[in-house]
Amino acid sequence: xxxxxxxxxxxxxxxxxxxxxxxxxxxxxxxxxxxxxxxxxxxxxxxxxxxxxxxxxxxxxxxxxxxxxxxxxxxxxxxxxxxxxxxxxxxxxxxxxxxxxxxxxxxxxxxxxxxxxxxxxxxxxxxxxxxxxxxxxxxxxxxxxxxxxxxxxxxxxxxxxxxxxxxxxxxxxxxxxxxxxxxxxxxxxxxxxxxxxxxxxxxxxxxxxxxxxxxxxxxxxxxxxxxxxxxxxxxxxxxxxxxxxxxxxxxxxxxxxxxxxxxxxxxxxxxxxxxxxxxxxxxxxxxxxxxxxxxxxxxxxxxxxxxxxxxxxxxxxxxxxxxxxxxxxxxxxxxxxxxxxxxxxxxxxxxxxxxxxxxxxxxxxxxxxxxxxxxxxxxxxxxxxxxxxxxxxxxxxxxxxxxxxxxxxxxxxxxxxxxxxxxxxxxxxxxxxxxxxxxxxxxxxxxxxxxxxxxxxxxxxxxxxxxxxxxxxxxxxxxxxxxxxx
Amino acid sequence: xxxxxxxxxxxxxxxxxxxxxxxxxxxxxxxxxxxxxxxxxxxxxxxxxxxxxxxxxxxxxxxxxxxxxxxxxxxxxxxxxxxxxxxxxxxxxxxxxxxxxxxxxxxxxxxxxxxxxxxxxxxxxxxxxxxxxxxxxxxxxxxxxxxxxxxxxxxxxxxxxxxxxxxxxxxxxxxxxxxxxxxxxxxxxxxxxxxxxxxxxxxxxxxxxxxxxxxxxxxxxxxxxxxxxxxxxxxxxxxxxxxxxxxxxxxxxxxxxxxxxxxxxxxxxxxxxxxxxxxxxxxxxxxxxxxxxxxxxx
Lengths: 486, 298
Hints:
The structure holds 2 protein chains of 2 kinds. Chain A is of the alpha+beta class. Chain A folds into 4 domains: 1-46, no CATH class; 49-121 and 375-476, no CATH class; 123-218, Elongation Factor Tu (Ef-tu), domain 3, CATH 2.40.30; 227-358, no CATH class. Chain A is 16% helix and 34% strand. Chain A contains 9 helices and 35 strands. An 11-stranded antiparallel β-sheet of chain A has the order 19-18-17-16-13-14-15-12-27-31-30. In chain A, strands 10, 11, 28, 29, 32, 33 and 34 form a 7-stranded mixed β-sheet that branches. In chain A, strands 22-23-21-20-24-25-26 form a 7-stranded mixed β-sheet. The longest helix of chain A is centred in the middle third of the chain and has 15 residues, at 175-189. The two termini of chain A are 31 Å apart. By secondary structure, chain B is α+β, with helices and mostly antiparallel strands. Chain B folds into 2 domains: 1-134, Roll (T-fold), CATH 3.10.520; 136-298, no CATH class. Chain B has helices spanning 33-47, 50-55, 58-61, 74-87, 98-113, 190-203, 217-220, 240-259, 290-297; strands at 6-9, 15-20, 23-30, 118-123, 126-131, 136-142, 151-157, 164-168, 182-187, 212-216, 230-235, 265-270, 273-277, 283-284. In chain B, helix 4 runs parallel beside helix 6 (190-203), helix 5 (98-113) runs antiparallel to helix 6 (190-203) and helix 6 (190-203) packs antiparallel against helix 8. Chain B starts with 5 loop residues before the first strand and ends with a helix.
């Protein structure tokens, strides 16, 4: 076991007993070998060979866990111990066999996991930021510490996507750009908070699994839908309780009385005049500029997006609810004698509908997916004929995981995969000064399949032998079994 | 549980990797297949227990070297012999030659077991060589070890006296008293090269310069053999003139060692500037195209 309590006369220093050098190691420092370190008074392997042990507790005793469904119906159950690549040590650029090629006998069939760490200079991170606030124009440069590390890409439902890293920022620019990009990717991948600024846009603090902080404001909720969709979802609940509803949205602002959903409920025209460009009835684009105000627009007073009410349709006393797509902002108005909306205390049943919108908005999060391609040299560490590994993965004979976490392998050439970094053990990523990221990657397959694809059979170690070593960190298995896809 | 070193052939089937505690060796022997096999077996045998042997005498190995020594182990005595010529002029412990001495020991064990054409034992950059008749090694030197550098090469021929190569500097695993990015030394043996590289790298310095951050070694590693000596932790912006002064200070040291017959040559590097001492030519190689480099990483 690597995590060993070490007693020592010295309060802060510890004595490492991993080898006879017996280094005294200060907190936060490593021993002479650079392999063992003092972490808060505990001796830890800096590059521990992590074993994720998927077990269930049974009467205080750990017993092997067997699932009824196989991952693809062809391959045997995976071993109850899953060996991950973290700390396996990479062998780049020697193409020597991956440091650990583990075989475990399960149900009479030998399974092989080839455990290695890949050095990826062809790698990047896709960030999904749940926010309606305007982060910046599409294709704008995203910076960390002033260096270009990526760009703003498409905006999907309720989220802004960023694409960071990639070979051009890592090795195609200045040394500093490469270093900062590498640091940024590593921090994000290791679930640390990173501040990014977007040219012509916002500053955003991104941390995997945490709400984004846009221009110093923590995002609370992700919108339930665009303004038009919100009208569709809530029209029935508003019917009879208010004459008009405007759902303010930077993308598509919805207007109940004009919207198809309102028409179906025979809601009367109200004489409302919206600014912006009408798309289809009750749906308006560009009612304001993007910003961090109501519904991702730049407005703080929602009346700014309305023109004067049409006297032919509007009547004094007409009621109107204005609400943002997240329910975060809302106001209630009644038209006065001159048909001007006057803000009034919101009736309880409308407050309830605003709360319902809020309730249906999921917590806003940042999601960080690490994406990389396993190139020829990495695959050569697994087999002497790299392309067979690719084919084996595509044929679903070989399962790919990263730090034990399930990955999505892209169709097409090579082994390009994406993994949710929050599913991986802490500290899974490292770097080399190239600059490039070091990430764990495992290939699991039947021993016979491994031999067939030209595996380094001489290097296959039984699982028990890896576990017996003193450089293994066992972690509880928290995740579902890695599948061929999800 | 008995602690055994990790010993395995690398995937090319030619090189042997040996690792124990802080020692990491990559060995390659060339010769007849059965000779190579016998030599690798001998290397594995000698390597097993070698670290324990050294650790048994660790306190003395970590003390300043005197003229005489009571050290017993072969490797320990070789470490002492390698640093002894410098002991009168500066603080030095046998630990300054540990890597080269271990490499030399393994090389010796291999040559005792078989007749080989050409061998290297690379202990983290401190390398012991064997060259049979008409054999040679091309030795690569990075010209910016602090960054991605261009490889330069030196050729070591069988009729050169060089059988040891070592590199020392502030970027390595051990501490340096100087500011050199790297000092690579060619010497008759790996242990001599190791000790001399340490001494020359320490001499590449600008004492008292405000841009240089120094910390007592024992604040970083409580049991460092360097005790409270100030070791270099950072080097700020230096002017071209200052770089030249620091390099020249190291070069003067290297010339003295060359004149005393302790080294066969040295390459000193600081902030992108390079100085070569000795008769060896150093050739600049074509930079590898960036495209190729990134392709290799994938």
